[in-house]
Write a structure and sequence with these properties.
The strands form two sheets. The chain has a six-stranded mixed β-sheet, with helices on both faces. 32% of the residues lie in helices and 26% in strands. It binds adenosine-5'-triphosphate. Adenosine-5'-triphosphate binds next to β2 and α1. GO terms for molecular function: ATP binding; ATP hydrolysis activity. Belongs to the ABC transporter superfamily.
Amino acid sequence: MEPLQPAQAGADLSLDRVSLGYGARLAVQDLSGHFARGSMTAVIGPNGGGKSTLLKGLLGLLRPLRGSIASRHPRPALGYLPQAGGVDPQFPVSVEDFVAVGLWPRIGAFGRVTPPLAERVRAAIAAVGLQGLQAHYIGELSGGQFQRMRFARLLVQDPPVVLLDEPLAGVDEATAQALLQLLQDWHVQGKTVIAVLHERERVRSHFPQTLALAGRMRGWGETRAVLEALEDAEWPR
Ligand SMILES: Nc1ncnc2c1ncn2[C@@H]1O[C@H](COP(=O)(O)OP(=O)(O)OP(=O)(O)O)[C@@H](O)[C@H]1O
């Protein structure tokens, strides 16, 4: 990724006529715009619309086929919550050790977890409502608890920009509310939050900005205006 140009001051991530895809197959075409520092944006659109692909492009995991993406922060500094399913819940690791991986960008995989860092891990586990479960194996958690634990790892990492791919998919309502509150807290702290979401009401109530993507950009700006302009066919309820 390229460093941001002075003209893009105020942006954390900036796209200039970006196309992303796999081989010859384009998933995102000709996307330009920027995510302002401290903005909170929902990325919405139909299945296969290119939302996950866009996140991978922003993270530098996928190189643009055309155009360029600039980031204010080096890639390891970006926080990323991929779609759930990548982690084998039977892997014999404790909640505490799973969450402590969020320290790696700071101390490396083999760095010493000092008492203040251990306290940071404990505090993150408590902040997502999993206090008392730190010594449990991750396989003992319910689906909602598992997603809370993944958020705790991000809390420990404390990145300036957080990209989340369907963070509320499949979780119970109490967990969804708790996780939305954490997103809101990050926003209030001035972090840049970018989340792929499907639920229209949640986008409306929690995300000031929306990027609608169906292969091409269908809208990007204030949530109310973007949602009003969308055809229902592109926005499954
Ligand atoms: N690894 C891959 N190799 C080839 N094609 C892919 C790959 N990942 C995604 N695609 C294709 O790229 C297009 C966009 O997929 P993407 O997962 O980005 O969409 P999405 O909007 O996140 O969809 P969903 O809401 O279903 O998660 C789809 O046509 C998909 O089949």
